[in-house]
Amino acid sequence: MASLLIVEDEQVLAKNIRRTLEKLGHQVAVAASGAEAESRFAEIRPDLTLLDLRLPDASGLDLLARFKAQHPEGIVLLMTAYAAIEDAVRAIQLGARDYLQKPLHMDELRLAVTRALEDSQLHQEVSYYRSREARGADLDSIAGACEAIEELRSRIRRIGSLPASAAPPTVLITGETGTGKGLVARVLHYSGARAARPFIEVNCAAIPENLLEAELFGWEKGAFTDAKASRVGLFQAADGGTLFLDEIGCLNLTFQVKVLKAIEEKAVRPVGGRSERRVDVQIVAATNSDLEEMVRSGQFREDLYYRLRVAPLRIPPLRERGDDVLALARRFLEELRQVYRLPPRRLSPAAEQAVRRYRWPGNVRELRNTLDRAVLFSDSETIDADALGLPQPAASASLAPVAGSDGLSFEIPDGGLRFEDVEKALILSALRKGGSQSGAARLLGMTRDTLRYRMEKFGIEAKGES
Question: How far is C-alpha 105 from the geometric centre of its chain's CA atoms?
Answer without folding.
Answer: 45
